[in-house]
Amino acid sequence: MSLSFEEVYHNHKDNTYARIVSRLGSPFDADDVFQNVFLKVYSSLAQGIQVKNPENWVARITSNALVDWHRTKRLHGSSLEGLCAPDISQGINLQESELINKSFERLPKDYGVIIDLYFNQGIPQSEIAKKLNLSIPNTRQRLHRAKNRLRERYLEIRGNFEKV
Prior knowledge:
Layout: H1 5-24, H2 27-46, H3 54-77, H4 86-89, H5 94-105, H6 109-120, H7 125-132, H8 136-163
Helix pairs in contact: 1-2, 1-3, 2-3, 5-8, 6-8, 7-8
């Protein structure tokens, strides 16, 4: 069954956009993902791909685009700030950012390395496990402990700072 882009766009734009907005919450971010979805649809149809079920096909492209968006957001939008307790991650200012950096510097080297690899470099746990010659469960456990230690150091330093 040969589909035209206009037909696919007309039939699936509303549901696709609603799904993206519901997942992201932000219409601005949703617009970017929506555009990427239909660029992929257009590109695929232009290459002559045969689609048996357009609804499922567009839904799959949308799911993949959302995963890509979250991955990109994690790679470029995350920092050590997100590791701290929820009350800390809201409205980070320069002073808190410095406290987080000091906390990070006080971590044992193996904890600092795993936090850097996962949060700053965006490397998946499975690849970190290979890189550090650890099992995946051991990597998860070390990352969990590192986040807890970072949180403890941050609260300790913040407490000392507030006493001054």
